[in-house]
Automatic annotation (TrEMBL):
It comes from Novosphingobium silvae. It comes from the Bacteria. Its main location: membrane. This is GlsB/YeaQ/YmgE family stress response membrane protein. The keyword Cytoplasm does not apply. Belongs to the UPF0410 family. It is a multi-pass membrane protein. Keywords: Cell membrane, Membrane, Transmembrane, Transmembrane helix.
Length: 89
């Protein structure tokens, strides 16, 4: 059940991050899920030690963990855009 929630919440967070970074037209639902999950992993290593909480990949679904995972997805898309286009946005 937790894996299903991680996939669902990761997809939603990846979709919201792609809207913020203006890459939504280039991504499908599968890539949104991947961005959300990998963003949560990035949040676990980089963002969570700075702001506290836990990423969604640990099974925690509170506001701080959702925010950290969303920021991780935005960081991931910014890095991808930096290499793909030469600019963050």
């Amino acid at each position: 059940m937790t894996l299903l929630l991680i996939l669902l919440v990761g997809g939603i967070l990846g979709w919201l991050a792609s809207i913020l970074m203006r890459t939504d037209a280039q991504q499908g639902i599968f890539l949104n899920i991947v961005v959300g999950i990998v963003g949560a992993l990035i949040a676990g290593f980089i963002i969570t030690p700075l702001i506290g909480g836990a990423p969604i990949t640990s099974g925690s679904f509170d506001i701080l963990s959702l925010f950290a995972s969303f920021l991780g997805a935005v960081v991931l898309l910014a890095i991808v855009n930096l290499f793909r286009r030469g600019s963050v946005r």
